[in-house]
């Protein structure tokens, strides 16, 4: 099971945090910090796997990818395959790239809700459900389309619609 | 500076409208980016949160704006600020009708809350409603939220709807419904158990995606009880076969591999189902063989599947042919340049050696390379492997290596782990006690605080008991060498507490035994220890007890003793200590000094730490006393079983009677039964003989002491103490009874009375694990760990095959020959070189048996590698060429093609990029791509090509040219 997906900038800023096992919000920053410490201490051109039992509990492993100014981090337990997780990161990044056309850190900062949408299409409840970036893109585009349709009416102030719904 | 540049880009994006985020959000991000300190950032976000608080509560905010406000709130929370005030707004938003708002609401709720949160109850109703929605996106959003937010109590509320959705026309919904059900199963298996059959049904879903999703819950279920799913083996094998044969639509391909994630899941499932089941495994061999044959070692995902295959093969009923294929793939992994593959190779090797330990030999040099690799992950994985393959023949080398590595790591968690592994291996396989003690010393010196205290007690016991052989001389030699080494070490600063305890105990027990050191010298050292560790009561207690022992031995030998001034100060200090235990020990020491020789000898016999102490459970020596008491009119003792609850007070009384001079107490017990009641219960709970505590007043000399000490705490506290004590004594017959001196401080005054050994509180309970008796094979082998890997390899692996011979005699030649003869079976080259081999033990040529002559003469380190690569080159180049002739050259162009659609857009957006043009990272990336492209053309060399392919495929760190090349221009 995948336990967490994190995107952390090389400046140690979290860009995306998603935990599939609930972690209280006040713990998030500690986790980010310890993961970042671990990552920044690792030289280039070593393996992309790290055991993280001290951070996420026994048996947990982490796969990361350092791309441009970002670390993409997946944390998971023994029921997943490290190399496959590495490819899952690849899928994620490929999808982002398709979605944003030349993704950069700023796209990710401003559209983290979009990232969540993409991730929700890929991973549900900690299990991988879709690994084709085309498929993911299709669903995401579909969602977008429908969102746009239904958002045409949304300029009315909240108070008014609330009155209607009541 | 870099941030400023990004802000430029940011503003450009803002004007484009980007993703519909407002200027305010841009400004927020911008100002956070510009913040120079954490404090400044905190201030900015605090201001933002204030603002959000106001706006969210404002009823006149347009709803579309609400979405953005909430997203800003999520952003602030992600940066680590408390935004709990907004949770209720998020919940409210899930009620909204418009899809984007609802989805945003669900997103925020799923991020903010967990199933135990109070607000979740408000969401459950919405989820329930949304699961029935006509809009499948709403249903999907609800399912996603359900996975996250529905706890055990709420499951029944949504379960019927989720089950209904399993038959939804949209496959995306079915897939998510399966996952939601799986999640419910994880949360609370009992509430979903009646629905488990649904997973089986979904396995036959028309949509491969849904089928793939179903594998996740099935895997969990099968892990739990494999036997009830054996009937599915054939189906799984069939599915796997179809997938591997590319029967699925090409949309399920990933990097030219057919549905790799489904394959991996299936292989995992088969591994569980086939484990130890010959019949089930029989179905799998063919398909596994197929996958191996088709295996694509050039791509990352191809290797992932191969690795999973190896795992599967090592788990199911072994088949020699399969194992061979697995070993072959493993060696490809190990010979790879990619750290990731080496890591997988080491892991795979660890699995395979469980079935066939000889496989490791072939890869000895590769393993040693991994051990010396700068990559920590790889190193740790390799230690894990070594740990698995430790035997009595290579334990010395492995443990030495581990300790060497342990010394330099700062990560406490891992240090603890590796220290305990060292201890475990040493305890299990130690070739000699001498070595064991030395090893333990090292472990304690560097990681003493992290090791279980039991280990320290074990070590003390070992030193005390010696080899367990008849040879007294060897034992005393061992002890004096221990004393020597401890005297050397003891002065060093920052020794861990548990190590100091051992040192003190050993010095006290054996410091003067061989007459090499004078009593005053040892005592001086012990005083130093006590002084240097003012805050550590346990160490001080050990030290003062050791001093006491030395005095006792001196007196027993009839020598005159003089109290050193520093020792006097120590005793004075301790007699005034806050710790009653230390006080007690100090007073005892003083009392002991005043005794005559005979008395001291019986109080503190020399080297008696291993003597078994007979516990007189019937307390026969008290018979006369009891008799007398009865004659004087005392009521007889009623056994516990015959007592009724009412009499418990009375029984307490009778115990009191035995304990001390009784008759007065009897009335007290009647007068105030309340306080005694809990006591009585506590004593009954101790079970059996409360009487045990009476052996205490054995020697007259100690009586005074008891009385003084007993006068301090109130009566029942003391007897309560006894109760505790007793329980520990009940766990008798443990080695840990060396002397009273090792009693833990917590056992306070009463423990002291048991001078002659009844207080084994320290190790008694915990150290039940006996040492493995593997000392028999005391082969001295590989003690000289030379820098040369060859030798290391020899000592690590070589012994495996030769094990049988070694028992008989340590003739190295035979040891050397036997593996080689075995090797002949697989290779025909090895036999020769072995004869010429000068280095004893183990045949390094094994590794190289693929190469030829040069092997014989201790090849240099680089040698094996070049050979491996030469070997690998053609092997892996072939599939690349044949498989994808169009892209033939390497993996790089392959990947590029994936992105080919993006290329034009990359050019188009080039105009905005110049802002980034001078960023450092950009240039580095350019460099990286340049290098990659340079590598591309020089393809004549098959080797190089292969290396590049690997690099591109698997090691993306820093420069994954394909992915971000076009991003950064």
From TrEMBL, chain A:
Key words, A-Z: Membrane, Protein transport, Transport
GO BP: intracellular protein transport; vesicle-mediated transport
Domain AP complex mu/sigma subunit: 1-146
Compartments it resides in: Endomembrane system
Any Pfam family: Clat_adaptor_s
Annotated transmembrane regions: none
GO cellular component: endomembrane system; membrane coat
SUPFAM superfamilies: SNARE-like (SSF64356)
Family to which this protein belongs: Belongs to the adaptor complexes small subunit family.
Name the record gives this protein: AP complex subunit sigma
Protein's organism: Sorghum bicolor
UniProtKB/TrEMBL annotation, chain B:
Lineage of source species: Eukaryota, Viridiplantae, Streptophyta, Embryophyta, Tracheophyta
Biased composition regions of type Polar residues, renumbered to the chain: 679-691, 769-784, 821-831, 909-926
Primary location class: membrane
Residue segments, region Disordered: 676-698, 733-859, 909-969
Role noted for this protein: Subunit of novel type of clathrin- or non-clathrin-associated protein coat involved in targeting proteins from the trans-Golgi network (TGN) to the endosomal-lysosomal system.
PANTHER family, per database record: ADAPTIN, ALPHA/GAMMA/EPSILON
Summary of subunit composition and partner proteins: Adaptor protein complex 4 (AP-4) is a heterotetramer composed of two large adaptins, a medium adaptin and a small adaptin.
SUPFAM superfamilies per the UniProt record, alphabetical: ARM repeat
All residue ranges annotated as the Clathrin/coatomer adaptor adaptin-like N-terminal domain in the record: 44-595
Keywords (A to Z) from UniProt: Golgi apparatus, Membrane, Protein transport, Transport
Name recorded for this polypeptide: AP-4 complex subunit epsilon
Stretches with biased composition (Basic and acidic residues): 803-820
Biological process per Gene Ontology, one example term: intracellular protein transport
Domain of life: Eukaryota
GO cellular component, one term: endomembrane system
Keyword Protein transport attributed: yes
Family: Belongs to the adaptor complexes large subunit family.
Protein's cellular compartments: Endomembrane system
InterPro entries with a match to the protein in the record: Adaptor_Complx_Large_Subunit, AP4_complex_esu, ARM-like, ARM-type_fold, Clathrin/coatomer_adapt-like_N
Record's compositionally biased regions (Low complexity): 739-761, 792-802
One of the Pfam families matching this protein, by short name: Adaptin_N
């Amino acid at each position: 099971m995948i336990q967490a997906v994190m995107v952390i900038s090389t400046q140690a800023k979290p860009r995306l945090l998603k935990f599939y096992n609930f972690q209280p919000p006040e713990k998030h920053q500690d986790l980010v910090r310890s993961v970042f410490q671990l990552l920044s201490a690792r030289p280039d051109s070593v393996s992309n796997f790290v055991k993280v039992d001290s951070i996420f509990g026994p048996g947990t492993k982490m796969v990361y990818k350092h791309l441009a100014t970002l670390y993409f981090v997946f944390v998971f337990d023994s029921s997943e395959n490290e190399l496959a997780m590495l490819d899952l990161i690849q899928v994620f990044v490929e999808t982002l790239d398709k979605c944003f056309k030349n993704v950069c850190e700023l796209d990710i900062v401003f559209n983290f809700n979009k990232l969540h949408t993409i991730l929700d299409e890929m991973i549900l409840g900690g299990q991988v459900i879709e690994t084709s970036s085309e498929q993911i893109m299709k669903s995401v585009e579909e969602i977008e389309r429908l969102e746009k349709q239904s958002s045409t009416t949304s300029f009315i102030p909240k108070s008014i619609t609330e009155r209607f719904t009541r | 500076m870099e941030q400023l540049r990004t802000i430029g880009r940011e503003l450009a994006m803002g004007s484009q409208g980007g993703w519909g985020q407002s200027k305010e959000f841009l400004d927020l991000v911008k100002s956070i980016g510009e913040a120079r300190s954490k404090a400044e950032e905190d201030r900015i976000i605090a201001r933002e949160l204030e603002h959000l608080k106001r706006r969210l509560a404002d009823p006149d905010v347009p709803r579309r704006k609400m979405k953005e406000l909430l997203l800003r709130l999520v952003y602030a929370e992600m940066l680590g600020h408390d935004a709990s005030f907004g949770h209720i707004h998020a919940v409210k938003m899930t009620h909204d009708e418009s899809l984007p708002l609802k989805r945003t609401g669900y997103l925020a709720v799923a991020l903010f809350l967990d199933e135990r949160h109070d607000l979740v109850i408000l969401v459950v109703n919405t989820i329930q409603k949304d699961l029935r929605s006509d809009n499948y996106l709403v249903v999907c959003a609800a399912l996603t939220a359900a996975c996250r937010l529905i706890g055990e109590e709420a499951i029944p509320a949504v379960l019927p709807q989720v089950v209904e959705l399993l038959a939804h026309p949209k496959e995306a919904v079915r897939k998510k419904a399966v996952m939601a059900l799986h999640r419910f199963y994880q949360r609370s298996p009992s509430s979903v158990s009646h629905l488990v059959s649904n997973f089986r049904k979904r396995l036959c879903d028309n949509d491969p995606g849904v089928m793939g999703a179903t594998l996740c819950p099935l895997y969990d279920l099968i892990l739990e009880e494999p036997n009830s799913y054996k009937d599915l083996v054939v189906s799984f094998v069939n599915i796997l076969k179809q997938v591997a044969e590319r029967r699925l639509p090409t949309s399920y391909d990933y990097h030219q591999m057919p549905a790799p994630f489904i394959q991996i899941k299936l292989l995992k499932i088969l591994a569980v189902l086939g484990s130890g089941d010959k019949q089930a495994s029989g179905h799998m061999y063919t398909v596994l063989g197929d996958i191996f044959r088709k295996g694509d070692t050039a791509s990352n995902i191809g290797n992932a599947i191969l690795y999973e295959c190896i795992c599967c093969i090592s788990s199911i009923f072994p088949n020699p042919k399969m194992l061979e294929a697995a070993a072959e793939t493993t060696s490809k992994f190990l010979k790879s340049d990619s750290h990731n593959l080496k890591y997988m190779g080491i892991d795979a090797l660890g699995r395979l050696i469980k079935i066939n330990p000889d496989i490791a030999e072939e890869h000895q040099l590769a393993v040693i390379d991994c051990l010396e690799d700068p990559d920590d992950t790889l190193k740790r994985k390799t230690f894990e492997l070594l740990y698995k393959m430790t035997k009595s023949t290579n334990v010395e080398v492995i443990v030495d290596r581990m300790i060497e590595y342990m010394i330099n790591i700062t990560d406490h968690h891992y240090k603890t782990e590796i220290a305990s592994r060292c201890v475990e291996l040493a305890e299990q396989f130690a070739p000699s006690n001498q070595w064991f003690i030395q090893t333990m010393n090292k472990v304690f010196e560097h990681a003493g605080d992290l090791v279980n205290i039991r280990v320290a007690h074990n070590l003390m016991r070992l030193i005390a008991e010696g080899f367990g052989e008849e040879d007294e001389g060897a034992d005393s030699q061992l002890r004096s060498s221990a004393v020597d080494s401890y005297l050397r070490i003891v002065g060093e600063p920052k020794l861990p507490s548990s190590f100091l305890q051992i040192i003190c105990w050993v010095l006290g027990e054996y410091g003067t035994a061989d007459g090499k050191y004078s009593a005053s010298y040892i005592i001086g050292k012990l005083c130093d220890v006590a002084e240097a560790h003012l805050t550590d009561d346990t160490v001080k207690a050990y030290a003062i007890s050791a001093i006491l022992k030395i005095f006792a031995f001196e007196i027993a030998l009839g020598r005159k003793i003089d109290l050193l001034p520093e020792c006097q100060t120590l005793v004075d200090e301790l007699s005034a200590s806050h710790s009653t235990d230390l006080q007690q020990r100090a007073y005892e020491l003083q009392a002991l000094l005043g005794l005559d020789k005979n008395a001291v000898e019986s109080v503190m016999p020399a080297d008696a730490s291993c003597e078994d102490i007979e516990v007189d459970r019937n307390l026969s020596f008290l018979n006369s006393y009891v008799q007398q008491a009865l004659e004087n009119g005392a009521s007889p003792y009623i056994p516990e079983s015959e007592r009724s609850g009412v009499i418990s007070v009375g029984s307490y009384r009778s115990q009191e009677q035995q304990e001390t001079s009784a008759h007065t107490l009897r009335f007290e017990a009647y007068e105030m039964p309340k306080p005694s009641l809990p006591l009585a219960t506590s004593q009954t709970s101790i079970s059996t003989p409360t009487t045990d505590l009476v052996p205490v007043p054995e020697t007259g000399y100690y009586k005074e002491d008891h009385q003084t000490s007993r006068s301090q705490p109130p009566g029942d506290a003391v007897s309560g103490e006894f109760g505790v004590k007793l329980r520990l004594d009940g766990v008798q017959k443990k080695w840990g009874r060396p002397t009273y001196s090792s009693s833990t401080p917590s056992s306070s005054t009463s423990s002291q009375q048991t001078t002659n050994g009844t207080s084994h509180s320290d190790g008694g309970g915990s150290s039940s694990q006996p040492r493995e008796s593997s000392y028999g094979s005391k082969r001295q082998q590989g003690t000289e760990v030379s820098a040369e890997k060859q030798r290391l390899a020899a000592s690590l692996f070589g012994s495996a095959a030769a094990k049988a011979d070694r028992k008989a005699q340590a003739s190295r030649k035979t040891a050397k020959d036997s593996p080689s003869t075995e090797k002949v079976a697989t290779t025909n080259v090895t036999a020769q070189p072995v004869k010429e081999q000068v280095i004893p033990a183990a045949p390094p040529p094994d590794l190289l048996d693929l190469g030829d002559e040069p092997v014989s003469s201790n090849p240099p380190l680089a040698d094996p590698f070049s050979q491996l690569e030469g070997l690998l080159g053609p092997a892996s180049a072939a599939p690349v060429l044949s498989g994808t002739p169009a892209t033939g050259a390497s993996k790089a162009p392959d990947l590029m093609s994936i992105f080919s659609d993006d290329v034009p857009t990359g050019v188009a957006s080039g105009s905005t990029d110049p802002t980034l043009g001078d960023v450092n990272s950009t240039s580095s990336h350019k460099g990286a791509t340049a290098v990659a492209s340079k590598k591309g053309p020089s393809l004549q060399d098959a080797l190089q090509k292969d290396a590049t392919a690997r690099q591109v495929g698997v090691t993306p760190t820093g420069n994954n040219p394909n992915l971000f090349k076009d991003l950064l221009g």
